[in-house]
Predict the structure.
Amino acid sequence: MLACSCLVPDGWANVPIPEETYDFENPTVFLPLLVCMAPYGAVVFTIAARPAFDDGAVQDWAEYLAAQNNLVVERIREARVNRMPCILVDATMPSEVGPMRSRSVFLEDGRRLFNVGALAPEAIWASVEADFDRLLGSFQLDDVQGITAVPLRLMTSESAVDLSAPAATRQAPMDKEAEIPLTAEAASAEAPPAEDEPVSPNDRPTQAADVALADDASSLDPDNEINARLRDNGIGLVPRVISVVDREKFASVGAGAIESVFRVPFGWHVIDDGKRTLVFDPGGSVQISLDLRITPPGGDQQLVSMIAESLAAESPDAQFLTFEFMGSLCLAVRDLLIDGALLDQDYILRPSHRERLTLVCRVTADRDNIERAMNTAEVIMNSLQGPLSPDPEFAGQPDWWRDAVLLERADRLEEAEQTIEKALDHIGVYSSLAHMYEERCARLARQGREEDAAAARERAIHWLYVYASSATSGGEGAALSRERDQRIAALGGEVPKR
């Protein structure tokens, strides 16, 4: 259930885990899986887990837990550990031996919350930081079940930190390491890491950058010409963008029709009408349709047969073949006659997070583009995580944010502000209030309501100043002031002179 592994430097002491009962009704209690200490100083590396919380983003949980443990959070970033989305938290805390600094990964998977942390005196942090990043990046789950909560409360344009980047591109001063397999019983037997075998380019999973068609996420802008035309014709809406990773050329979107989050390579379009999610290229030569279908008594095999029989009735000369693709049953159809053109289709079937429903991914392209289409589908299917809210616009967002936005759109601004203030009890409340007014300003400006847009701009600027002034340390204050100035400039407001 909690099996995982990581690297630990040679010579570090593996502290025995005491046998005791853990009360998870207490939201601050974690089950320790690993506690390791360096032979020098108060340098500690730990792994712990607990059931995930019922609502909110992982960022909300991390900020709450930090406050309960007297940690002063300095920075929170979205990160990746072995391709798993998570957040990276840098914080400080006082102690009897002087100021301490910590760096922690908070990772939610299958309603399980893992906390992988490193702690050291601030005075020696610079000398151990590279080692800690290597340890954090080595964390790996044996059983990846998929996220059920978004990492960050709000979308950010900052690239995710890749903690598991290739060793050749990262500092690795540790002479020896041992890989520690961990279970719920915190097994601690050491085993030497296996030799890395060279991976053939053909065996490497397709990455978003391999099939990206652009260098940014502008194809997911609701006001993009193609997206606006489809929206105005009632075809569907662009799903909410949850995060953007510029370096890897993808954005994560929350699709209401399939109640899931997945990665979209830059340059591809996505439309969701509540019944299906459609991914397509600007030229329309590739379409990838995702929807949930009732699983028949005979399972995926029967569903594949039903699909094939229906297609054969419409196109009797088509050729059919079943095979396995990414561990899923796949139906390949060649020379399918659609609107007078011969096209290829591939159907990828996968169990859904919804009981008695199967996720069906239908890939359609001509013979010249079917390989590119399937590579793009591989990126989508490998990154698919669910469930999420069935509301396509607010998929991946907490309920309080949806409620606040709907109140704002009804011009019930005081109630909208109160909804956010009741939901959050930390400094992020002011950033969220400002964000609500930033979105209101942009929406009203598009509608030509310049006076109302100007009022929303002033309200956003007000909350940005409150946000920056709420910093609890000089470093945090400088960072929040820079963020404030950037957001004010984006609004067209006057940036304070320094």
Observations:
- DSSP finds eleven helices and 21 strands in the chain.
- The mean pLDDT is 83.
- The CA atoms of residues 31 and 49 lie 5 Å apart.
